[in-house]
Amino acid sequence: EKSRLTLLGLGAMGTALARAWLAAGHPLTVWNRTSSRAEPFAAEGAAVAGTAAEAVAASDLVVVCLLDDVSVGEALADADLRGKDLVDLTTGTPAQARARAEWAEKRGARFLDGGIMAVPPTIGTPGSGGYVFYSGSRALFEARHSALAIPAGTRYVGEDPGFAALHDVALLSAMTGMFAGVSHAFALIRDKDIAPKDFAPLVVDWLTAMAPYAYGVADHLESGDYTKGVVSNLAMMVEGNSTLLRTAGEQGVSAELLTPFMALMERRLADGHGDEGTTGVIDLLTR
Ligand code: NDP
Model-level pTM? Predict the structure, then answer.
């Protein structure tokens, strides 16, 4: 017997979550600020609540997936959270998650924060690789795991309610650097006789081959030895950077996406670390 679940927020992500729970036959109560987005769910078997407070009252497990942390505070302003298990899938910062956890606990709820590493089309699609980072109350996570695992895989990363957001944002930050590199690469080949569709698989294969770079970085940070296993040293790479910059110039492409990272590599080299890889850049960022 599955206990009822309440979902607040039926945007792109909330809609995908709701459909996944309904498809699994999970009893569901939904609420959305703009009620026209909630009404269609009645025909799909959900109970549609008129207010957020009513929706919260309907279930012991309450999942929120709203635009941002401010909307969570607004939506739950006059809900009675005593005895509830509150799971916040709204993207936010680690500090916002910690503050929201304290806020929820003061109001009598257990709290779990989530960071969704998936897009709406992969929600409810086993094998898609999508998952959610969770942190905060381990007891809540364990008690509610079967319901939480329906829309996507789950990865619990610790009692600190900020850790899900920290993992989420760290991965998104890594992705941002990758997007920058891919943008620069396509700018270089654009309007030459190279078809983007032929170039794309080369980019994907190359980035996939290079991704284990992260294991080398971890090994350096764990051991404190930044020269360990280095096959391409910083002195050589900084030399190579000049070729990247000259090529950008020849192709008429701005190098503005590359130069901030290159400047850090040069600073680390100037500090006398030419035999390392690029791990020392992390020391410059966190100092
Ligand atoms: P949408 O913009 O599609 O939906 C936003 C939702 O928040 C709507 O239900 C909206 O209600 C509601 N909302 C906004 N402000 C308030 C408020 N002040 N009070 C009450 N409700 C409010 O966003 P998504 O569904 O795509 O995203 C939801 C969360 O999921 C975000 O934190 C996002 O970062 C995260 N996420 C989304 C991913 C995606 O690919 N879409 C991927 C990973 C995470 P209304 O309909 O009334 O406007």
Answer: 0.94
Q: Which of the listed residues 159, 186, 207 is the one where a domain comes to its end?
A: 159
CATH number at residue 242: 1.10.1040.10
Give the residue from 184, 192, 134 showing the smallest Cα distance to 159.
Answer: 134
Ligand 1 atom with the smallest distance to the CA of 13 is 25
Which of 66, 93, 117, 132 to mutate for ligand 1's pocket (most ligand atoms within 8 Å of CB)? Answer: 66
- Residue 158 Cβ inside 6 Å of ligand 1? The answer reads no
- Angle of the 259-270 helix axis to the 234-251 helix axis, nearest 10: 150
Of all atoms in ligand 1, which is nearest to the CA of residue 92? 32
- For the stretch 68-126, pLDDT in tens is 999 999 999 999 999 999 999 999 999 999 999 999 999 999 999 999 999 999 999 98
Q: Using one digit for the tens of pLDDT, what is the confidence trace for 11-66?
A: 999 999 999 999 999 999 999 999 999 999 999 999 999 999 999 999 999 999 99
Cβ atoms of residues 65 and 13 within 8 Å: yes
Tell me phi and psi for residue 8, to 5 degrees.
Answer: -105, 120
> In whole angstroms, what is the distance from residue 120 CA to residue 38 CA?
17
Residue nearest (by alpha carbon) to ligand 1 atom 38? 119
Answer for the pair 78, 22: CB distance below 8 angstroms, yes or no.
no
Best substitution site from 67, 74, 88 to test ligand 1's pocket, by max atoms within 8 Å of Cβ?
A: 67
130 CB neighbour count, 10 Å cutoff = 19
**What ipTM was predicted for this assembly?**
0.98
Domain that holds residue 26: 5-159
* Centroid of ligand 1 to alpha carbon of 34 (angstroms): 12
